[in-house]
Automatic annotation (TrEMBL):
Lineage: superkingdom: Eukaryota
Positions of transmembrane segments: 51-70, 76-92, 112-134, 146-167
PANTHER family: CT120 PROTEIN, TLC DOMAIN-CONTAINING PROTEIN 2
Assigned keywords, A-Z: Membrane, Transmembrane, Transmembrane helix
Record protein name field: TLCD2 protein
Organism: Fregata magnificens (Magnificent frigatebird)
Length: 173
């Protein structure tokens, strides 16, 4: 979180070996959450409805799992968790849709906040992470660099496509 960078400026220098107290636990709990959500989707949703999210969760579980097991890249995973701030508004959007409240001020306001947080916490964060990975390629072992690059190559287009769908659905009906 941004507060962590203020309280722990060493994170801006070293996202590989440095992480503040509690960060490793946060990333480990996040792996547990993504695993639980993955299993829940497998058991309770049709595959054609959830394959994109299952794929997303698989990438996150692998990348965060590596950080947890190696006690490295925890700072990088912490930055990746900024993306989840937008999930609050994505989930609220789904709840409002299920409650048939699409034509309400609450839905409209959430749509605007959702798009704003999407740009700031998803697109900008993923762009920053991709840039960091590229700029630090000499300092990252080839296998880890490969996992990170593949992860970014999967997550970035997925998030751009979802952004387009949100724009089309909520603003260009």
């Amino acid at each position: 979180s941004p507060r962590r960078f203020c309280l722990h400026p060493e994170l801006s220098e070293d996202l590989v070996g440095t992480h503040p107290p509690g960060a490793h636990s946060l990333v480990a709990v996040s792996v547990g959450y993504f695993l639980e959500d993955f299993v829940d989707m497998l058991c309770n949703q049709k595959l054609h409805q959830s394959w994109e999210l299952l794929f997303h969760h698989s990438v996150v579980i692998i990348c965060f799992g590596i950080a947890v097991l190696l006690h490295q890249y925890v700072g990088f995973a912490l930055v990746a968790l900024l993306v989840e701030i937008n999930s609050i508004f994505l989930h609220l959007r789904q709840i409002l849709l299920m409650a048939n409240l699409v034509h309400t001020t609450c839905y409209r306001l959430n749509s605007i906040i959702n798009l704003g947080t999407y740009v700031v916490f998803r697109i900008a964060t993923l762009a920053w992470m991709t840039r960091w990975l590229f700029l630090n390629r000499e300092n990252v072992p080839p296998a880890t660099y490969a996992v990170g690059t593949v992860g970014m190559a999967i997550m970035t287009p997925m998030n751009i496509i979802l952004f387009y769908r949100l724009l089309r659905s909520d603003f260009f009906k």
